[in-house]
Recover the amino acids of this structure.
């Protein structure tokens, strides 16, 4: 739990990440920042998808519509939190000269997106639109 | 690869600061899309108090994100070898995104 709190503080505390290790080539830091922003855009796209499901599929049954929209919004929030966590971990690993952290999150997100897409196909084909 | 002309400031041939600036711009644009969708959801919800409040919070998040991106872009332009962003920027940007998602959930639930 203390490790989690420490990481949480790193998300917002400017100086703590820089306290350890050596400053890497600034281009690596910028590449890490762009990766973080790309993940943040993915999160925003999921949130936008949640809004879109709610707004542009009015014929869908209430349960399906709200459930799908909330799932997409939750995935977006999770993706954003993971983005900053991964960014801090990568930055720290670069400063310490360690290997970059490995992550199962991309695979997990791919599977979730694929499942949501398949469910949508089934919902539209079978015609459960109320 | 020819070096920069004598006297000119050293310029990264990979244009890393420019690419990072454009990445911030793209992300700001994505935030704008979400804010517009939130406004549409609030309008479609019939203008209830909860809907208007959620929409206002989304718009405030959009403004904060705009400010964070603007400050980061200014820092990138000012430094010759800009370092990692102050983590407060990253944390703030993510906080805005998460609050937008929560407001979206409120809008979807009550709409």
């Amino acid at each position: 739990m203390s490790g989690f709190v420490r990481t949480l503080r790193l998300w917002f505390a400017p100086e703590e990440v820089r306290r350890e290790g050596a400053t890497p080539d600034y281009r690596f830091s910028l590449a890490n920042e762009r990766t973080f922003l790309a993940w943040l855009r993915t999160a925003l796209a999921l949130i936008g998808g949640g809004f879109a499901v709610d707004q542009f599929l009015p014929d869908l049954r209430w349960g399906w519509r709200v459930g799908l929209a909330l799932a997409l919004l939750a995935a977006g929030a999770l993706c954003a939190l993971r983005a900053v966590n991964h960014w801090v971990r990568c930055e720290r690993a670069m400063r310490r000269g360690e290997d970059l952290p490995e992550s199962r999150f991309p695979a997990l997100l791919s599977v979730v997106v694929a499942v949501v897409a398949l469910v949508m196909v089934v919902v539209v084909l079978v015609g459960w639109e109320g | 690869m020819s070096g920069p002309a004598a006297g000119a400031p050293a310029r990264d041939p990979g244009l890393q600061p420019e690419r990072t600036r454009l990445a911030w711009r793209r992300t700001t644009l994505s935030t704008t899309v979400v804010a517009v969708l939130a406004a549409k959801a609030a309008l479609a919800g019939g203008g209830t108090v909860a809907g208007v409040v959620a929409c206002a919070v989304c718009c405030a998040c959009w403004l904060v994100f705009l400010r964070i991106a603007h400050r980061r872009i200014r820092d990138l332009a000012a430094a010759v070898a800009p370092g990692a962003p102050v983590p407060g920027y990253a944390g703030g940007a993510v906080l805005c995104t998460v609050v937008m998602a929560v407001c979206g959930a409120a809008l979807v639930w009550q709409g």
Observations:
- Chain A has a mean pLDDT of 85.
- The first helix of chain A runs from residue 2 to 12.
- Residues 26-126 of chain A form one domain.
- Residues 72 and 86 of chain A are 21 Å apart (CA to CA).
